[in-house]
């Protein structure tokens, strides 16, 4: 099972290392502007086009900032050479305001040698391409909140990949037709109700779509020996990545035709399944 928090820690490991190496709560060894290293990591960055030419952008950014800095967007995003007098004034205001609100902390002489902090920020912006306007959504996160958002996004991406169709592969669902060993029973055949799944290729798909029954090799429980068993094709669908990773390839021997008694057993089985589905549906509707 994936350790999502470990993966998250690995992604921000360099930021943590720089923070630890460049100083402590008493101040940084080097000026923040002299740190020639990446100072932020993009954990999530994606967008989708919505109706009426609205673009939805989502991002999770982890950044290394002076402890007084409010946001990655205000400090690190503008390149040092691109900062204006207004930008510099805003930074000075952040610096002064932070230490006014935290009298327990020592205000450094050089604002850029303040102790470093790691910030977790989540952006949720909607751009209206018709008007050129943006509805900005932004919030600061705790470490744990950031890990939870990362985990949720990764699980969603896994789900999308799991449901992606694998070209040329199909997932077959089937049941086994059994010969009746109990001589007191009226019918010589019965269908074992457990559904099985297997992966087939296009050539096998073309063979099976013309036949209801086939013979395949399978292993009996607690045995390494293969036996040939007659199976009934219930339905076939395009295989997803999940199907291919979780179900084995069908070991097809041949297609076959059912006799009168076998067809009766299959029809009885399908009727029972139909009744069960109807009963479940009616129970849900109550």
Describe what this molecule looks like in 3D.
The structure is a single chain. This protein is of the alpha+beta class. The protein is 34% helix and 36% strand. The chain contains eight helices and twelve strands. The protein has helices at residues 4-11, 13-21, 72-75, 85-101, 143-162, 202-208, 241-246, 260-285; strands at residues 23-24, 27-28, 40-50, 54-66, 116-128, 133-135, 138-141, 165-179, 189-201, 213-219, 226-240, 252-256. Strands 3, 4, 5, 6 and 7 form a five-stranded antiparallel beta sheet that branches. A five-stranded antiparallel beta sheet has the order 9-8-11-10-12. A two-stranded antiparallel ribbon has the order 1-2. A hairpin with a 6-residue loop joins strand 10 and strand 11. The longest helix is centred in the C-terminal third of the chain and has 26 residues, at 260-285. The chain is elongated and about 95 Å long.
């Amino acid at each position: 099972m994936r350790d999502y928090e470990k993966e998250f820690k690995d992604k921000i490991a360099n930021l943590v290392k720089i923070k630890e190496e460049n100083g402590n709560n008493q101040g940084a060894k080097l000026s923040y502007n002299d740190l020639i290293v990446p100072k932020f990591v993009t954990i999530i960055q994606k967008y989708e086009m919505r109706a009426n030419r609205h673009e939805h952008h989502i991002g999770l950014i982890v950044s290394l900032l002076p402890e007084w800095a409010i946001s990655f967007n205000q400090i690190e995003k503008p390149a040092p050479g691109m900062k204006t007098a207004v930008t510099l004034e805003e930074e000075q205001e952040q610096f002064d305001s932070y230490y006014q609100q935290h009298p327990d902390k020592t205000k450094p002489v050089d604002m850029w040698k303040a102790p470093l902090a790691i910030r977790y920020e989540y952006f949720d912006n909607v751009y209206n391409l018709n008007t050129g306007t943006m509805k900005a959504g932004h919030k600061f996160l705790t470490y744990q909140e950031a890990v939870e958002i990362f985990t949720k996004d990764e699980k969603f991406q896994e789900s999308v990949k799991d449901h992606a169709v694998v070209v040329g592969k199909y997932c077959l669902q089937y049941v086994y037709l059994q010969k009746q060993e109990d001589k007191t029973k009226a019918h010589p055949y019965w269908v074992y109700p457990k559904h099985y799944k297997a992966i087939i290729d296009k050539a096998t798909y073309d063979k099976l779509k013309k036949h209801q029954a086939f013979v395949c090799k399978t292993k009996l429980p607690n045995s390494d020996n293969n036996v040939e068993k007659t199976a009934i094709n219930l339905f076939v669908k395009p295989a997803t990545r999940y199907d291919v990773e979780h179900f084995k390839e069908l070991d097809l021997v041949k297609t076959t035709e059912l006799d009168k008694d076998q067809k009766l057993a299959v029809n009885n089985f399908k009727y029972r399944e139909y009744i069960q589905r109807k009963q479940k549906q009616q129970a849900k509707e109550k």
